[in-house]
Amino acid sequence: MLPIGGVTFIISIIVILIHSLVVGASKLLRWPLGSKWSQLLLQKEQMLAMITICLVIAVIAGISSQVISIGLTQDNNNLAIARNLMFTCSPPTLKDGETAVILRLDDVQAFGWTEISIMMIKDASKAGFPVTAGVIPEKIDQDVRTAEFLLDYGCTIELALHGYDHAPNADNPDLGEFALIGFEEAQIRLIKGRKILQKYSDEPIDIFIPPHNQLSGEAIEALAETNFTIISSAGADFLDYDTATYDFIENTIVPAKAVIADCEEGFSRGDLLCVITLHPQDFAKDINSVDPVLYAEYLKILEWLVKKEIPVITLREALARQSELDPNF
Q1: How many CA atoms lie within 13 A of 46 on its CB side?
Q2: For the segment 170-202, what is each residue's pLDDT rounded down to a tens digit?
């Protein structure tokens, strides 16, 4: 196929040749160029000139869009720097004694429930809420849709490392990637995962969400050694989750009403922070499509937050404000 630039060049040459031949022949043979012929030639030249201009503009626009697209998806160039300067994130404000919620979305990954993850983050963003995304980094660079989205919604997303490949234990599928792992292997996976996620965030990658909420003692040591300072798991620690949209014991979705009740019960006891764990697959019909009925439960949670004017913050912000949010601090 002839490239557009080649077509433009050929048309330009044709215009020049036609003009040169007609004018040259008229001078050589002393033919007077009649007014009709002159008008026709002028119209032809104008039409060809317009076609040439349009093609040139199309080529420039196409090349420019490609350059910008490449630039915005790379982290080490002037366009990326300009992107980061143009878009700034505004942290939420909390009043003294005000309750807050964290939306912790686990299992954001390459080639899996992509559209649902994107929908969830976009809908939260429309409501003015950030999402802490527990990202499985393996192959995330290869999934252009997910990778570009993480860059585009950088202000809305707090990135957390959610294991490296999230593969279950080979001998016991109920045990997560870091449940029985040794120190050295844990450290290797943490460093590899951080290196990948750092491309998509201006913040340090120092947040870890354990796959299956399971950590070996040596994994805990490896986290400290590699400067992961924020851990959100299952349990009674300040940043551990308080409620979830899926019950893995009963293998069933937890209705929004029950999730909201869990948070409100905690608030009534004096807790000021409620961490809600979500997964894109909680609301999936299959790996490629959302279940509208199930997804409506997620939207109900967002509607509750909007109606009650409950601030949504990130794990990093919660830790920075632990003295305000943790009655036991």
Answers
A1: 6
A2: 788 889 999 999 999 999 999 999 999 999 999
